From TrEMBL:
Source organism superkingdom: Eukaryota
Membership in a protein family: Belongs to the thaumatin family.
Signal sequence range: 1-22
One GO location term (cellular component): cytoplasmic vesicle
Pfam families on file: Thaumatin
Localization, UniProt: Cytoplasmic vesicle
Protein name stated in the entry: Thaumatin-like protein
Keyword Phosphoprotein: no
Alphabetical UniProt keywords: Cytoplasmic vesicle, Disulfide bond, Signal, Taste-modifying protein
SMART domains in alphabetical order: THN
Tagged with keyword Cell cycle: no
Function: Taste-modifying protein; intensely sweet-tasting. It is 100000 times sweeter than sucrose on a molar basis.
Major place of residence: cytoplasm
Organism: Zingiber officinale
Length: 227
């Protein structure tokens, strides 16, 4: 009996950090237009979506240990009663309830929870381009938030322009120089367009040094569109 009790206690203690460190994300639409918020993770795989009129918010809970996580705004969407349709930017396979990542261009709030030394890693990324401004800030944990809210769509270079957004050069050209798919690479004149306007955000795939931020595991967050 004592052995069973100890085993049950150990199992409970194993699960306890996971329940403590699950994260709450409040997603807020401060754009003057409707967006269709979306989220997805790869480990464990999960996702969803919701229509947010201007001023509305949506709260989601993300399991501890989630990796490959991202939140983004879809724009110019139309869905039928079965949740099927399409979006001008950020479309995720033509469904309201995303289970995979969105189509570029879309500004990304990315995260991996409870990773090395039980830290959350988070960032804003323009590697998939830009469609709306983002603020990604902790609401607990005592760490700093990040923001990318420049007029990137209005100032987008001609070769990167897309309906409703501004593409990253990797999306347009697909080469090693811009995509960093075959070894190390550095900034380019086109990635610098994004970096000068949003210094805290990823501008190309290996832009880690100035673009990755951490908070203690168990931190909660707010993602604001058009801050």
């Amino acid at each position: 009996m004592a052995t069973s009790t100890n085993a049950a206690l150990c199992f409970f203690l194993f699960l306890l950090p996971l329940s403590i460190n699950a994260a709450t994300f409040q997603i807020v639409n401060r754009c003057s237009f409707t967006v269709w918020a979306a989220w997805a993770t790869t480990g464990p795989r999960a996702g969803g979506g919701n229509r947010l009129n201007s001023g509305q918010s949506w709260t989601i809970n993300i399991n501890a240990g989630a990796t490959g996580g991202r939140i983004w705004a879809r724009t110019g969407c139309s869905f039928d009663g079965n949740g099927r349709g399409s979006c001008q930017t950020g479309d995720c396979g033509g469904v309201l309830q995303c289970q995979g990542y969105g189509r570029a261009p879309n500004t990304l709030a990315e995260f991996a929870l409870n990773q090395f030394q039980n830290l959350d890693f988070f960032d804003i990324s323009n590697v998939d381009g830009y469609n709306v401004g983002l603020d990604f800030s902790p609401t607990s944990g005592g760490c700093r938030g990040i923001r990318c809210a420049a007029n990137i769509v209005g100032e987008c270079p001609a070769q990167l322009r897309a309906p409703g957004g501004c593409n990253n050069p990797c999306t347009v050209f697909g080469t090693q120089r811009y995509c960093c798919t075959n070894g190390p690479c550095g900034p380019t004149e086109l990635s610098e367009f994004f970096k000068t306007r949003c210094p805290d955000a990823y501008s190309y795939p290996q832009d880690d040094a100035t673009s990755t931020f951490t908070c203690p595991g168990g931190t909660n967050y707010r993602v604001t569109f058009c801050p």
